[in-house]
């Protein structure tokens, strides 16, 4: 029997927030994703939408050689730091400089590979704890809030009810909750355990600056408008690390994270050469091509195709999963898709539990036939 392992969680994740603060904050600073030839990425448009929740002026920080020609609606000021290499440490220094000089109460980025490397570093420089991968920003004064008190691993024989347990490969996780009521002007909802649990987190000290990252697929894209004045900012680059090189793969297909349609393959595709079957379907649909971690680890396709908890998070209008069983890690990266189509020979595959349409058939027969009919 698995021995029980208890670990206490801090009960201070959701605490009373003061109605007054000791300083006057000015604005919310949004970190832009790297521009693509002066074009503002869709992830930045979604981050600006999230920034509106704070009811402050929204300022945009753009780091790189190019300044934007268009910006999301609602941005009142644009800061441009001309750092060509975009080293994470240098970008974090730029955030610290701009946020401090302009008294920004919130620093907000996207939960992308770029944002995930920069936001924690910026939080450390600003001496605050970041809250990452936010799915929702709520305004819930006097609302019931769930606080995690403790967590323990238990053997299956100790399982009494599945209601309070999260299934895992070899064990079950029991989470002990406590519901309390706290006054809070903004509460952040973020996932835990690969998206199986959503927790609400509030800032302990409202007088401190907030450093956050949001999942872009959880927020609508703010429309773009012509840029006005761009303020150039000089920041000393980080000197203890050196940018060596960058290898960027280019494709005529849409970007995976912003595509309206995604065709993904898993281990069931059997080889890298067989991905041509999915690529032909993707070309017919003007879709991006994705993959499960199993397919990437097997060497069937490049790393930047990976969809999932440790890859890219997508939420297209249509997601086609061919030969993907549906591991939790993969589902957490695509389950917010508006329509999910699963093709798999295993009728018990977990992917069918989240699919809107399921086809229990060999992908080597189904996908070419579907492609021919388009």
UniProtKB/TrEMBL annotation:
Which InterPro entries does this UniProt record tie to the protein? DHS-like_NAD/FAD-binding_dom, ETF_a/b_N, ETF_a/FixB, ETF_alpha_N, ETF_asu_C, ETF_asu_C_CS, Rossmann-like_a/b/a_fold
A cellular component term from Gene Ontology for this protein is:
mitochondrial matrix
Family annotation (Pfam families): ETF, ETF_alpha
Q: Name one molecular function that GO assigns to this entry.
A: electron transfer activity
GO BP, one example?
fatty acid beta-oxidation using acyl-CoA dehydrogenase
Mind telling me which Gene3D superfamilies this protein's record contains?
HUPs, TPP-binding domain
Mind telling me which SMART domains this protein's record contains?
A: ETF (SM00893)
PROSITE patterns this protein is in? ETF_ALPHA (PS00696)
Keyword Transport applies: yes
This protein's cofactor list reads: FAD
**Note on cofactor:** Binds 1 FAD per dimer.
Q: Which residues bind FAD?
A: 267, 292-293, 306-310, 323-330, 344
Per UniProt, subunit arrangement is: Heterodimer of an alpha and a beta subunit.
Q: Tell me, what does this protein do in biology?
A: The electron transfer flavoprotein serves as a specific electron acceptor for several dehydrogenases, including five acyl-CoA dehydrogenases, glutaryl-CoA and sarcosine dehydrogenase. It transfers the electrons to the main mitochondrial respiratory chain via ETF-ubiquinone oxidoreductase (ETF dehydrogenase).
Q: What is this protein called?
A: Electron transfer flavoprotein subunit alpha
Give the source species: Cylindrotheca closterium
Q: What is the lineage of its organism?
A: Eukaryota, Sar, Stramenopiles, Ochrophyta, Bacillariophyta
């Amino acid at each position: 029997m698995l021995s029980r392992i208890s670990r206490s969680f801090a009960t201070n994740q959701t605490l009373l927030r003061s109605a007054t603060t000791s300083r006057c904050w000015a604005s919310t600073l949004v970190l832009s994703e790297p521009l693509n030839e002066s074009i503002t990425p869709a992830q930045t448009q979604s981050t600006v939408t999230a920034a509106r929740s704070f009811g402050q002026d929204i300022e945009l920080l753009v780091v790189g050689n190019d300044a934007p020609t268009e910006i999301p609606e609602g941005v009142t000021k644009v800061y441009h730091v001309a750092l060509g290499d975009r080293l994470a440490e240098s970008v974090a220094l730029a955030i610290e400089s701009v946020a401090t000089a302009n008294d920004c109460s919130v620093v907000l980025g996207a939960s992308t590979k770029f944002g995930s490397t920069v936001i924690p570093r910026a939080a450390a420089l600003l001496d605050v704890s970041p809250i990452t991968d936010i799915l929702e920003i709520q305004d819930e004064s006097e609302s019931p809030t769930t606080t995690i008190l403790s967590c323990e691993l238990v053997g299956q024989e100790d399982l009494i009810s599945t209601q309070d347990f999260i299934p895992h490969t070899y064990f079950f996780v029991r989470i002990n909750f406590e519901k309390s009521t706290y006054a809070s002007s903004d509460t952040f909802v973020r996932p835990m355990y690969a998206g199986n649990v959503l927790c609400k987190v509030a800032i302990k000290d409202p007088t401190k600056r907030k450093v956050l990252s949001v999942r872009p697929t959880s927020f609508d894209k703010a429309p773009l408008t012509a840029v006005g004045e761009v303020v150039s900012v000089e920041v000393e680059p980080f000197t203890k690390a050196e940018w060596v090189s960058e290898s960027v793969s280019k494709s005529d297909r849409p970007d995976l994270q912003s595509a309206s349609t995604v065709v993904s393959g898993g281990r069931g595709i059997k080889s890298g050469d067989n991905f041509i079957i999915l690529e032909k379907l993707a070309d017919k649909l003007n879709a991006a091509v994705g993959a499960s971690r199993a397919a990437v680890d097997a060497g069937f396709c490049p790393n930047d195709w990976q969809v999932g908890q440790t890859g890219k998070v997508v939420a297209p209008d249509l997601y086609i999963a061919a030969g993907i069983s549906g591991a939790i890690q993969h589902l957490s990266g695509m389950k917010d898709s508006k329509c999910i189509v699963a093709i798999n020979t295993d009728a018990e595959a977990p992917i069918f539990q989240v699919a809107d349409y399921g086809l229990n058939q060999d992908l080597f027969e189904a996908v070419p036939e579907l492609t021919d009919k388009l």
